[in-house]
Amino acid sequence: MENQKEKTTIVLFSGDLDKAIAAYIIANGAAAYDHEVTIFHTFWGLNVMRKDAQVPVKKGLLEKAFGWMMPRGANRLGLSKMNMLGMGPEMIKHVMKKHNALSLPQLIELAQEQGVKLVACTMTMDLLGLKQEELLDGLEYAGVAAYLGDATQAKVNLFI
Predict the structure, then answer these.
(1) Which of 27 and 4 is assigned the larger pLDDT?
(2) How is 96-144 classified by DSSP, letter by letter?
(3) What is the mean pLDDT of the segment spanning 88-102?
(4) Which residues contact 115 (CB under 8 A, 6 or more apart)?
(5) How many CA atoms lie within 13 A of 16 on its CB side?
(6) Cα–chain center distance at 10
């Protein structure tokens, strides 16, 4: 009888730097323990997957407005608490670097190297006007049914 891998799923709903870091630390830890891991990025969690540079894509006015208001990529996220007009994230990044902790972009890269399945929610992409070209390479695109398919087989399901 073949041993089946443990499965872990994470819904990353938040676009806060501290919560995204926690999600990716858990995901990388689970992958290191040989879990099959899925991170389903939806709503503000999709901002984690945005490319840092602006990508020219055709959008309507409302879609453009969402794009301007939302942070572009892992390097521009705010904190859930103590954001302090943008100084909080820089302080956290400094402390993490001082303690040789991986940055969020490094955690994302490590997750990809470990085979963590990074999924962007297509319904939310449509709602917020995000296009695949604006998101990082190597993502999968799916809806809630695909996430539920992974989650029903997982022993660990987290909503962050």
Answers:
(1) 27
(2) HHHTTPPPHHHHHHHHHHTT-EEEEEHHHHHHHT--GGGBPTT-EEE-H
(3) 91
(4) 31, 37
(5) 12
(6) 9
Please report, for residues 47, 61, 116, 141, 149, the alpha-carbon distance to residue 35 in angstroms, rounded to integers and kept in the order given.
Answer: 25, 42, 9, 21, 16
| Calpha distance 47→79 (Å, rounded) | 13
What is the Cβ-side half-sphere exposure of residue 40, based on CA atoms within 13 angstroms?
Answer: 21
- In terms of Cα–Cα distance, which of 147, 159, 156, 152 is closest to 119? 147
The single-letter DSSP state of residue 53 is S
List, in order, residues 6 or more apart from 103 with CB less than 8 Å away.
74, 93, 96, 97
Q: How far apart are CA 9 and CA 157, in angstroms?
A: 5
Residue type, 19: K
Rg of the chain on CA atoms, in Å: 16
Q: What percent of the chain has pLDDT over 90?
A: 76
Helix (H, G, I), strand (E, B) or coil at 55: coil
